[in-house]
Structures are given as structure tokens and as C-alpha cells.
Design goal:
The protein has 120 residues and is mostly beta strands. Helices cover 0% and strands 58% of the residues.
């Protein structure tokens, strides 16, 4: 059974940092693109950062220079991280970890979501 389990959300003051983690298991993700999405109240879900199967990374313009996505393989689990620095109130959202199938472009696997709140 595929599972993506997120952790690390919470409340932090503007200008602070948080690190989100996602543990992905239940299948091989070495050929998958993995990403972090977020959805703020009343807004559409947006792709924040992604780490492709070829190990390249891309970021939304709104987080470039502040967020860093990284990925580690440990035994049968892939860990995806999102280091978030210089946080702003507009970063407040539910953050989701997601993964595609092998060499895929569509995100087929999703975590449960993790609330991140930035206090001004």
C-alpha cells in the first residue's frame, strides 16, 4: 500500500523557518517526480516545488530563494523535504506531498496535508 506521510507543519512567526518532511513508501519512487503543493483558503492548489526523477528541481516564483526541496532514499522509503526560510504570512496554507508514477507527469499519490501557519 502506497503511503505518503507528512510531518513538520505548525505555527511560526513571519521571518522564521520550518522544515516539512514526507515519508513515501509502498512502491519504488526512484523513477517518480515528487513535489510539494499548497492550498490556501479560497485559493487553488499550487505547485510549490518539485524534484524530478532526473534529480532536477523547480520552484514557484513566489518561493524561489526561500524554499529548498530535497530527497533521500533510505531502505524502502523515500524522504522528501521542504526547507522553508524567511516565511511570510502569505505562505500560510495546507501543504501536501505528492508523487507521480514512473517517469510520469501526473501526480497520482498524495499525502494527507499538513497545516503551516505564519503569524505576522
Amino acid at each position: 500500500q502506497v503511503q505518503l506521510v507528512e510531518s513538520g507543519g505548525g505555527v511560526v512567526q513571519a521571518g522564521g523557518s520550518l522544515r516539512l518532511s514526507c515519508a513515501a513508501s509502498g512502491r519504488t519512487f526512484s523513477r517518480a517526480t515528487m513535489g510539494w503543493f499548497r492550498q490556501a483558503p479560497g485559493k487553488e492548489r499550487e505547485l510549490v516545488a518539485q524534484h524530478t526523477w532526473s534529480r532536477s528541481t523547480t520552484y514557484a516564483d513566489s518561493v524561489k530563494g526561500r524554499f529548498t526541496i530535497s530527497r533521500d532514499n533510505v531502505m524502502n522509503t523515500v524522504y522528501l523535504y521542504l526547507q522553508m526560510n524567511s516565511l511570510k504570512p502569505e505562505d500560510t496554507a495546507v501543504y501536501y506531498c505528492a508523487a507521480t508514477g514512473d517517469y510520469g507527469e501526473r501526480y497520482d499519490y498524495w499525502g494527507q496535508g499538513n497545516q503551516v501557519t505564519i503569524a505576522s
